[in-house]
Task: structure prediction
Amino acid sequence: MKISYYPGCTLKTKAGNLETAALASLLALGIEVEEIDRWNCCGAVFSLTADDLIHQVGPVRNLIRAKEQGANKLVTLCSMCYNTLARANLIMKNDPVKRDTINRFMDDEIDYAGEVEVVHLLTFLDQEVGWERIREMVKVPLEGLRIAPYYGCTLQRPADVGIEPFGSFSLMTRLFESLGATVMPFAAADKCCGSYQILNGEDGAQSTAATILKSAAEAGAEALATSCPLCEYNLGKQQGKLLENGLIGTTVPTYYFTQLLAIALGVAPESCRFDLNDGAALDLLKNKNCLVAA
Amino acid sequence: MTLTITDQTITLKSFEKLKELSGENVKLCMQCATCSGMCPMTAEMDHSPRKVMHLAQFGLFDKLSASNTFWKCASCHACTVKCPRGIDIAKVMEALRQQVLRKSKNYIEPSALPAERIVELPQIALVAGFRKLTS
Result:
């Protein structure tokens, strides 16, 4: 099986661990990945004003790249990329007036009408690989690891692009159960991490992040899993500061879901780039004897 | 909060502009405050999302433009998915932000961000923050 893949900017640098672990996992699952040519920034946030079409051009160009390569599906890993691409795709599919304006504006491109389906890797694993197959492929079960699935906002909202309904976390739950981990539901699982508000004074983003981390810890989770580099930044990389400021009492290591998948599939830890996570993330997996000898 | 309505405070043009930019009809709001309950940033806001909807219903845009609510909105869409009247409140907040940003006003100053912060922030944080908070 071969898939077309859109990485996005952050996965090529600061969230390299989200990507390298995913690519190694897909290789282990026997899936060939083709990164689309000449991709550009997705825009990070979907433009919410009705008259602003120029910011749809970026995501739509990426969809055109996929169409040119003959793809009918485009797989993404980053939640924010997923959201902007999927929402721009809905405009191109469902709004003939805006579609026509955007197509005429990009007169150097082929016309596009939503022919490519934007798919998040979690949905792809569910629909095209299947949890049973993943369970069979597990070499290092994540036994005893109590993991809290954290989707963040952009995987689930709004409803027309959500990978599953608001308040439901079944895709990550079934993934981690297939990997042998124990899934820990927690009350603040659907709360926002503060997102880009981290640029707008730290107080707001810190208190939202603390709410989530405290809730996960109180529910008995040892770690948090996400698919968004901005969630990982606010919830993972900011933990030292949150602890220092007394906003949280205990640390909760954060992983990308792809890193847990890769480790369970027996991928070498080097391919998961744990150097980009907080040190506690690698230590926890070591303590659980989940790392194969490197 | 006391609302004083005079012929100066209600600006039909601004009301129409909000509708045009957001595509939403704020008059559908029944003031149930589900949005304020869902919003993760309410504690940071001078007016809760419900109050912003109320001010918008009355066209009190002078009060609205001085509010920090739409600048503290993280566009998480928790209000949007739970609004019992089906109003996409995240779009209303964006329309309010855009009415200020389109006058070439920045809410945050990118050059004031410390260099060490820029080095560690993921690109999506910078792109998203600049798109939402700068003109």
